[in-house]
Prior knowledge:
Oligomer: heterodimer
Largest sheet of chain B: 12 strands, mixed
Radius of gyration of chain B: 28 Å
Strand content of chain A: 35-45%
Number of strands of chain A: 26
Number of helices of chain B: 1
Largest sheet of chain A: 8 strands, antiparallel
Amino acid sequence: MKKIIILALLFATIFLASALAQDCTLPFKNCVVSQNFSNVVAGSTTESKITFTFKGLSWSPLIVRVNITSDGYEFSENDFSLSGLLVTQSIQQPSITYEFPLKCELANKIINISEYQFYPETGKQVYYCYNETLNILMPLSNNVLTLYLTPNIALIPSTFTITAELLSEVGLVVIDPNVEITNGKGELYIGMHDDVEKLEFLLSGNQNSTIKVTVYSSVFIQTVPKERPFGVAYFDFENLTSFSGNIEIRYYFNPMRLISKGYDITDLRFYKYEDYIWKLVPNSGVVIFNDTYAYAYAILPSLSIYGIFTSFQKNVQTISTTYYLPSQTIERTVNLTQVINQTQVIERPIERIIEIRPNVTLPVCGNNICEVGETWQNCPADCPEPQLPQIPTGYAVLAEPGVFGAIILISLSAGILGAIGFSYLAKKLKK
Amino acid sequence: MKKTIKIAILGIAFLLVSIGFAGVLNYYGKIVGSVNVQGPIFYADLGANGAKEGRLLLNTKPTQTYTTTLPVMGVSFTSDILNTTFNYKPKCLFSVKVNSPSTGEIVFECMYLDLTASKYISICSNSSTFTSPGIVTGTCVSNLNSLQNVYQIILVIKPGGPGTYIETNPNGDTYLQITKA
């Protein structure tokens, strides 16, 4: 028995050591620094070249996180300027080559670009390098990434350690858990911006499902919808188990938080990121309970990357909106008489909140609008039949921008192989 | 049977270790390097033979070789507009290519133009003697703890005696470097 334990520990150590020694994990392979940064005088540029193979089967994002560290050094905003260039070349057809310049920005600038203010950080400065096209890694490609680093002329002469990390996310991840939908309902508490901030998932027919949710604090997608240019929240939803029909996703928030930024809370809408632009989700709206509790909702036939956007508060507006829900009819009237000068709120923004009326007004089937309560099953004239979401399998997972998914899959495989190895060795030892 | 259970437990434990390790990573590849950043070098460029003023080129060597005789007031070299602040106590490193005479002395001074205060401020100065023509070097440490609102950097090279010829060339033999004291 002791021998088995020793062998198991040996296997585990070898596995962990080899895993730690890897510079790359799938779908990236063969990461090699072909040229390292050299010593440089302030004001000049030094460059580093990193080559790697991308084994993904679809165009994918590449984000380079660059950490610059120096013990005890207090960084200033303009200490370094950083940029990059990615040359991606098809393995199968080397004549197909694309070049993408990378823009590098300080992390805290990306996280909150609208309220950006530099706070000096001792010992570390983090940049994110990206191209606004996002999906810049060609499927099955050889890649050369060049990073150009220029220290400011007035930089205090020192030695800096530069770490470049290759990521494949569309934004800065806050959390990325799996959400269990049980009996048609699932919840994910976020609490990033305010206490009520959460997501709710609703499926018809008390279905069960599991959804992988990635919540981003910001995304590297620089385009915004013209009519609603202010991004409030960003998500990547991926169903790990299939479900039928539409899914309703609700994003709960504190309206006062957005009002204080000058955003129009009645104009919140879900947008899907598709073909490099944000496309408005037709069945999307907002429900306001009171001045501290509201949600934006969307009824979606499939899952993907979504953002919630809104517009700036109008000079003066009075809005009366009626919302219909399947089980009951709730008229939610929001009177907004507010903000004449956009920087000066002259009245309390929300005057009246909710009325629940017993009279039921049903959605009209045949008006070409897929209203709440209508589905492709009970009203095919208004609602298109949804495509069943794809269940990711095997290598397709690796090609998706989910780092954890890829690594866990590899680790699981290694673990299973290890377990088989143990039982084989145990049998041998028994003999 | 008992052994099989133990083996299964070991396997599961190993699996958990693998998953635990996997959870630590959130990137696909990681590359580490280091950079030693030195202070900026301003290469002197006379621009013409016999010139009494020249330019300081930031981290760029001149393309031509020029010579001049140092007048008593010296030759000054001025950088392009920088508009920055050096938040450290500076030290100036000098180098100058002297063609003649065979022995003598060179006086250096590095200065900057503070546009806000509208005045030239001396960073520090020093002198170096030489016993044969060639590259003469020297350093000086400033009493200032930082250089605020630096609009331009100026290098002044003065002779210790008459008939001192200096050269600026593509090797970058004549330069001023500002570094941390």
